[in-house]
Amino acid sequence: MNTTESMMRLTTQRQIILEELSKVKTHPTASELYDMVRKRLPRIGLGTVYRNLELMAENGMILKLEVGGTQKRFDASTHTHYHIRCSNCGRVDDIDTPVLENLVKEAAASSSYKVLGHHVEFTGICPACQKGKKAGKSFH
Amino acid sequence: MNTTESMMRLTTQRQIILEELSKVKTHPTASELYDMVRKRLPRIGLGTVYRNLELMAENGMILKLEVGGTQKRFDASTHTHYHIRCSNCGRVDDIDTPVLENLVKEAAASSSYKVLGHHVEFTGICPACQKGKKAGKSFH
DNA sequence: CTGCATGCAAACCGTTTGCATCCCC
DNA sequence: GGGGATGCAAACGGTTTGCATGCAG
Predict the structure, then answer these.
(1) Chain A contacts of B96, Cβ < 8 Å?
(2) Which of A73, A119, A125, A135 has the smallest C-beta neighbourhood within 10 Å, fewest atoms?
């Protein structure tokens, strides 16, 4: 619940996970990240990757994407922005539709929840899948 | 991919699942629905519930919600509307913010995807959890 | 030395699937 | 009688967790 505050140690593993995540503009799943990190730290465990992603997300260093699909995805850019997910292959990209600043206020007015945030997710078919490359296992 | 078309048989199980789902305005998970249905059909299997929810979603009879959280949730009302999810207990409610009709067009303009749909999900704290009843296992 | 972080493997949980049986047409 | 639907249980995939060891402060 605290941001950047509980200054955790920046271990080699943590640092490299963060570096690898920052390198890409895709929004890798934990195991994709695991594969990337393993090239530099061959003995790292999947559990460590999960633990650290969770930790960094809690501390606001990265974003755990609240998107559909079966796997969680992570994002090194923490400013609010929206995403589009390919309903064929599951890939997630940024979309630069302007952020709807007043949506949260509107929502707060019409709900008994304490509204904290929002996210917009588009679904569609990515360029690769449009070209008939139905390669990806079809997510939903 | 077909809507209402492949007219599947309306078995007792399917009918009751649909009835129970229609009864509630919460957005039950498969196993919550399983519990509800089991009161009327004690011998029904979880697999049957999953199979039929999937089928009915494909045929457009119900909605499989593309929301965050660990479990999928289902909704008997198929018109486009947005949701708010309690980040403490995971519960999902409708929110009656007006649907943003032109968002998809905007998105299509700024993306190389073929944009098909969108969904807005708010996060917040539900009334029950605000009252200190931190009962629910904290989802994220 | 002390405790947090790691690697490893087993446990977990939600969902899917294979299969024998059942039931409707 | 035949084909889809069901109940059951095992398999699966992603994530979490327990535990012994390692390493930094």
Answers:
(1) 110
(2) A135
- Cβ contact (<8 Å) for A66 and B68? yes
Residues of chain B with Cβ-Cβ distance to A57 below 8 Å are 140
B54-83 residues near strand C (Cβ < 7 Å): 54, 70-72
pLDDT bucket at A140, cuts 50 / 70 / 90: very low
**A6 contact partners, CB below 8 Å, separation of at least 6:** A59
The fraction of chain A above a pLDDT of 70, given in percent, is 89
What CA dihedral angle connects B83, B86, B91 and B97, to 10 degrees?
-20
Contact B120 A117 (CB under 8 A): no
- When CB atoms are compared, the residue of A87, A95, A114 closest to B130 is A114
Architecture of the domain whose range is B1-78: Orthogonal Bundle (1.10)
**What is the identity of the amino acid at B32?**
E
Per-residue pLDDT tens for B40-94? 999 999 999 999 999 999 999 999 998 888 999 999 999 999 999 999 899 999 9
Straight-line distance from CA B20 to C1' C20, in Å? Answer: 29
Contact A93, B111 (CB under 8 A): yes
- What is the domain partition of chain A in residue ranges? 1-78, 79-140
